Amino acid sequence: MHLRFYSNRPDRQKGSVAIEVAIIAIAGFIVAILGSVAMLSTSFIITGSGEETIEGGVTGSAAQLVLRTGVVAESGEVDVDGNDVILLSGVDELAVAKLKMVLEVSTDVSVDLTPPNTTDDTLVDPDASGLSPRAFITLSWNEFTTNGAEWSVLFLGDSDGDYHLEQGERAEITIWLHEYDGTNVLYDLGTDSSDGFVDTAIELLQQRDEFAIEINVGGSTPLTIQRTLPLELGTSDLLD
To answer: In what helix (H) or strand (E) does residue 20 lie, and over which residues does it extend?
Structure first.
């Protein structure tokens, strides 16, 4: 059987093929767009330098953090018996109340240092920030360990006003081992394991103790710092 075509009648076979090709091309284009959107919205890539790509933005890890000073151990009088009066000849003790250090970043990738705590120098410090930190600090020595240390941050010198540490900025991290009672001018023990404070006299950080700090940002490899306290505690001891 022979097919006969007329010049004034459209070629239905050629039209069908053209439509199918167009449909396939459009479908491929849509799939490509959806794939690109999915990659942007769900991408979580850790590069060799520790950089993370999250939701199209780049955030640094603890690998970018550099300790620019020694660790400063500030001592204070701890109200062990909880009577709001310090008597060092009794059960109350002199111990490390805060640890401070200054950090910078080593690359042009910023590091999110949104803190769990802030300070206002009134009544009780630190205060809960109500923010959502990506950086967490583990603090430990022989008698004590917490994976959720209480800490605050103060940006020194030039800063753009956010909590992202960038090149040219310096951030002073303060780790609070005890809550400060500004009314009675002393430090209190923590309540229980629900907070990151030292809870008992046995756990106090005191002379000759060796301690370790781990700063972890977004689950990356932590920045680890280890120091040993001197034979006698001063008001503020710089531990190189």
So the answer is: helix 12-42
> What are the structural domain ranges in the chain?
58-239
* SS3 category, 68: coil
Written as one letter, the residue type at 222 is P
**DSSP 3-state helix, strand, coil percentages of the chain (rounded to 5)?**
15, 40, 45
Q: For the chain, what is the radius of gyration of the CA atoms?
A: 29
238/24 Cα distance (integer angstroms): 69
Pairwise CA distance, residues 121 & 229, whole Å: 27
Query: What is the model's pTM?
Result: 0.76
- Residue 85 token pair: 């009066």
Q: What is the pLDDT along the chain (240 residues), one digit of tens a residue?
A: 444 444 444 454 445 545 554 555 555 555 454 444 333 333 333 333 333 333 334 568 898 999 998 999 999 999 999 999 999 999 999 999 999 999 999 999 999 999 999 999 889 999 999 999 999 999 999 999 999 999 999 999 888 889 999 999 999 999 999 999 999 999 999 999 899 999 999 999 999 999 999 999 987 789 999 999 999 999 999 999
